Amino acid sequence: MAKRTGEKYEAIIDAAVRVIAEFGYHNAQVSKIAREAKVADGTIYLYFENKDDVLISLFSEKMGSFISEAEEAIQHFDSPVEQLHQLIRLHFEYLESDRELAIVTQIELRQSNPEVRQGIGQILKRYLDMIDRIVEDGIKKGLYRSNLDVRMTRKLIFGTIDETVTSWIMNDRKYSLLSQVEPILELFVHGIGHQTREM
Amino acid sequence: MAKRTGEKYEAIIDAAVRVIAEFGYHNAQVSKIAREAKVADGTIYLYFENKDDVLISLFSEKMGSFISEAEEAIQHFDSPVEQLHQLIRLHFEYLESDRELAIVTQIELRQSNPEVRQGIGQILKRYLDMIDRIVEDGIKKGLYRSNLDVRMTRKLIFGTIDETVTSWIMNDRKYSLLSQVEPILELFVHGIGHQTREM
Amino acid sequence: MAKRTGEKYEAIIDAAVRVIAEFGYHNAQVSKIAREAKVADGTIYLYFENKDDVLISLFSEKMGSFISEAEEAIQHFDSPVEQLHQLIRLHFEYLESDRELAIVTQIELRQSNPEVRQGIGQILKRYLDMIDRIVEDGIKKGLYRSNLDVRMTRKLIFGTIDETVTSWIMNDRKYSLLSQVEPILELFVHGIGHQTREM
Amino acid sequence: MAKRTGEKYEAIIDAAVRVIAEFGYHNAQVSKIAREAKVADGTIYLYFENKDDVLISLFSEKMGSFISEAEEAIQHFDSPVEQLHQLIRLHFEYLESDRELAIVTQIELRQSNPEVRQGIGQILKRYLDMIDRIVEDGIKKGLYRSNLDVRMTRKLIFGTIDETVTSWIMNDRKYSLLSQVEPILELFVHGIGHQTREM
DNA sequence: TATGAATGAGATTTCATTCAT
DNA sequence: TATGAATGAAATCTCATTCAT
Question: Residue B117: pLDDT above 80?
């Protein structure tokens, strides 16, 4: 029933991002999104199943397409270390270039109900899988430690990236997110310990 | 006006944890919490300002007291590495021993409104400060790398711990959270890179 | 946001009058008014800001329009005595023809909260101003005593009219309100004293 | 059951006057009155049937005793004109000397529910009867016009006095209420018309 | 007499969704 | 396709009153 393409489909999603970023998740009513998108309230239901569908679609369109781009981009690099480097860089670059989207995906949508969160989780799965592949490849190629627990390593990488972006937004983006790429990678690769290899 | 102590105060908070864990944040009505606590709806307002206050108090009582305990406990260890070890262990131990609380603090309360989230944020600040102190101490004592960015390191540690707990709950706690302590610490200290010092 | 016109706007106001007259101010719930107006509860909030707004609008529509009519009508009379006569007559005629409205404006709305009472007060101001103009005009034309205190005279006129209507309602409207027009005017003009001029 | 005398009985009534005058009828909760009276909430119910009873008793004690005094006082005057004069003077004197009481009886208690209003009405009946007697006496003695409608005259007198006091309070008592005695009486006796006898 | 902690009924308002046009 | 007026369920909080102590 819901038509998932077209000018208005995109207009509604973009309007949702703007409205949620400006007013917050709890003040982003359907009618406000409709007004921002310059369509009638009812029109939204011609393109989306319901409000949850708008939010999940928002995440899917914006982050899903970023993930696809990232998947493609890192294939151009052989080294898993470099792949990780590029993944972080692309992630930060993408969110730094669209601050409204960063607010929405990083802060506001986290307040959503279980249905939306589950939808978001499914989309994020592809991102996590990408991390897994990089880690596994790194181990295989001898660049990452052979005794790494892949799942735990994924949590290290994703959790840190996520916390870094959230923190950057919470601090009103006073500094450049991209400036954090090298420090993060350095931490990932070397850890926090001193002369750890010899210990 | 709100009496913040007493048997019923605790009964209401405990009831809130149980109700939110069972029914989810969006289905945890005041009347349901009251029934679970075996008090009248109005009694809740003798002990709390409003519903938000119940939720913030819940977090404050449960996580605040954990943080105090943790602060005390790690003082018994000199080595910042061991302090970090103990902090992670205590954190996992605490949440693994109270699965309902884990669900509420890791998943459900994140859906709350900005007021509650802010209240939670203030309590978490003490936790983040504790991490900062450990890291700074570790650097000073030469156990952590001298060029560590303390703020970024804090994000690594907190982000990874948080992601690990969330992931454990999302996976229906199929494995032991405590079993993750050593792997996490290992990752924190050594990083993911192989023979990184020589690279 | 609130659309202050239309069929339903009037239906809601009329329903409010009926419900308040029948059940009293304290038992006139929004849902009861909505049911009486044959609209959904929420529809009321498409036409009014809130419940207070319904009550103030009720007074404004009913008494405000009466005041406008009265202002217009008395202009057709030159004599301030006749103007006063007509004002009283119109007032009594209006309320006698709509007994429910009389109950609501004279008795029930007086129990309302300060916000509503203030709204009502502002509308009544125009009525009081009209009395003032008649009195001032009467003094100027030598029909009323030159040493009249206009403000006090206004209180005499308004206070007596108001008390008369209230009393009529309280006595279950056993007599005709219009029958009181001449006696009131007579009292206003001549006072209660006998042969006072010669005293 | 309710003990209608004693130190606390009076303390509660006085507290009610103060609380209602300060916070308004709608913010005069039983617990606030109890606190002001320095008794426990429950104690109020040892002296009064319920909250309505407090309010009616308040009016009864304060205005009832005033009415008794007034009844006694005017008996010392033979002339019904002078009796009216004194009644108005006593009324204004009483309320001007106790501004809190004036606010409560004139403004706040009018917002009360039908039960309280009825209780108040019964007490006021004695006041209205007193006016009736003065008017009837005045007619009999030839001081008031013989064709006066007693009931209407009562409304003139009571309505004007009432409106005058209300207006005085609403204007924040910027002028002296007692200064209005002569102007009112003058209006009552002579009316507003000029040379009306000869007209 | 006096206390005050506890009770619990009850009402306004919001907003996602529908459907006649 | 598009509209937008109408729907109606649902939840927080207040406060008069009670009753065990």
Answer: yes
